[in-house]
Design brief:
Layout: H1 3-17, H2 19-25, H3 31-39, H4 44-54, E1 58-59, H5 64-70, H6 75-98, E2 111-114, E3 119-120, H7 159-167, H8 172-180, H9 206-214, H10 219-242
Parallel strand pairs: 1-2
Antiparallel strand pairs: 2-3
Helix pairs in contact: 1-2, 4-6, 5-9, 6-9, 6-10, 8-10
Length: 250
């Protein structure tokens, strides 16, 4: 018996048949609680364990990591938040390609976040609910992730080149446009697309995104970088699942 698929089917059934009961049994952890725990001096591993035990992931924009760091969240937690987000998008891409899913269950997906009000969750933060997402992208993909990704134009760029463009004074609007249409290097397909792994590693970590803000990369560029990274990641995983059993990806 495939227990993973049985679990997915059970959650989907409960979400449709008795959403009030399921939501009463599990409430996503608020992002404000992550900040509160961090500010109180709770060790990063205990903060991470609290997030894990709540089964909550957060749909964080690139600039959100710097805001969380400024609020007292440690680097280890930032990296965990990004990896958990990437893991969820990987899972949703797999379900999407294999014809499975979690239906419209709003507390089964990465929770939308507004760090200006320190709120998170569907119903608290404006976001399209999972059951209403646009066709052509995995359910649970945030509205701000430009998937399918626009075609790459111009030369590929790295994170360090983005920092250098910022240092040289490239206007934010031009930098954002460059990122949105660039092939990012050294962040997608970490470990090689043919490597057997349970979950792909997030090639762009949360702590790294926070440091980029400290190095002068503007908010708009950070958000564009996260959006581009996630869109390219989903497309890489889509092709990987599409080619399962067909030999190495080309």
């Amino acid at each position: 018996m495939n227990f993973a698929r049985l679990g997915i089917a059970l959650v989907s059934f409960l979400a449709l048949a008795c959403p009030t009961l399921l939501q009463a049994a599990w409430q996503p952890l608020p992002i404000a609680e992550v900040v509160k725990l961090s500010r109180s001096g709770t060790p990063p591993q205990l903060v991470i364990q609290r997030i894990k035990s709540s089964r909550t992931t957060f749909a964080l924009r690139g600039s959100d990591f710097a805001k969380l760091k400024a609020a007292g969240v440690r680097d280890q937690v930032l990296d965990y938040l990004q990896q958990a987000f990437v893991d969820d998008l990987d899972q949703q891409t797999r379900y999407w390609m294999l014809g499975e899913g979690l239906g419209g269950c709003p507390f089964c997906y990465p929770q939308p976040v507004n760090l200006n009000t320190m709120q998170s969750g569907y119903g608290r933060v404006k976001a399209t609910r999972p059951g209403g997402y646009t066709l052509g992208k995995p359910p649970g993909t945030p509205d701000w992730v430009p998937f399918p990704p626009p075609a790459s134009t111009g030369a590929p760029i790295s994170v360090e080149q983005i920092v250098e463009m910022t240092r040289r004074g490239m206007p934010e609007g031009k930098l954002v446009q460059r990122i949105r249409t660039a092939q990012l290097t050294n962040v997608i397909g970490v470990g090689g697309p043919g490597e057997i792994r349970t979950h792909p590693a997030a090639g762009l970590g949360g702590a790294e995104l926070a440091r980029l803000k400290e190095r002068g990369v503007p908010t708009g560029a950070l958000d564009a970088l996260q959006g581009r990274f996630l869109a390219m990641f989903i497309e890489t995983e889509r092709l990987r699942y599409q080619n399962l059993g067909k030999g190495p990806m080309r």
